Amino acid sequence: MRPHAGGVLMPVLLFVSVALLVLSRLDHGYIAGARVAIADAVSPVLRTIMIPLEPLRSAGAAIGLALERADDLDHLANENQRLKGWEARAKDLERQLSELGAVAKTARDQDMPFVTARVMATSSGPFVRSAIINAGEIEKLKSGYPVLAGDGLAARVAAVGRGVSRVLLITDVESRIPVFVGQQAARAILAGDNGPAPRLLFLAPDATVKAGDEVVTSGIGGIYPRGLRIGTVAGGSERPTVSVHADLDRLEYVSILFYEPGTGDVPPLEQRLQPAGAEVAK
Known about the structure:
- The structure is a single chain.
- By secondary structure, the protein is an alpha+beta fold.
- The protein has a single domain (54-265), classed as Thrombin, subunit H, CATH 2.40.10.340.
- It has 3 helices and 12 strands; from the N terminus they run H-H-E-E-E-E-E-E-E-E-E-E-E-E-H.
- It has helices at 2-25, 29-109, 269-273; strands at 114-124, 129-133, 146-148, 153-160, 165-169, 176-181, 186-191, 199-201, 214-217, 229-233, 242-244, 253-257.
- A 6-stranded antiparallel beta barrel has the order 1-2-5-4-3-12. Strands 8-7-6-9-10-11 form a 6-stranded antiparallel sheet, with no helix packed on it.
- The protein is rod-shaped and about 135 Å long.
- It starts with a helix and ends in a 9-residue tail after the last helix.
């Protein structure tokens, strides 16, 4: 009986299946109605089944979202770290560019050939104030050449090697620079004492010196060109000191002027200190 029943049932099922396919293709109204009726009948059962599963579904969605956000946070943290590294690098390059621009501008103001070098090391002990720069005979440096920082005179070349040179800072105890002080161009000697503020020596008794007066090289003796800015008077009239413009404790780039005695100076001090429109006294 079973083989006979199975042999009859299979063709019936095939016929029903083919009929349903044909009717669905023909979009028969009975088929559409039957689909809607079945959906209406099954929907309460599906809603009942989904109620206990909804918290699990929400929890799964929340877990997936949390994992996705964790990945995003890790990515953002890595990006933030990388950007901070670039920011630090950009700030360092900006600072170096600013310093290079400052020393280049100072050198160009003197209208003389110059070379820019980097400070490799400094010595600020109790007996010497000097620095080592990465320029020497290859760059045609010579002993005695003035060394400028961004804001003014910083040193002079003391010894020259093939690729490096030693420069003596203007605050060194061995440094002696003839200078003019103030609008009256009072003559003096700027003497270093290994401290932060060199002193003014050999001022004329009748010289009037006050705080804030500009101090520049006088060019007397031919060691330095005339008119290089050094600093301003900071101390009193009894023992006047000078606050130098160059930041000697944080030198990084300097410009070395190719100055030979008698080859030329910057504009005369009277013109540099003269108020606009005034005539220079003969």
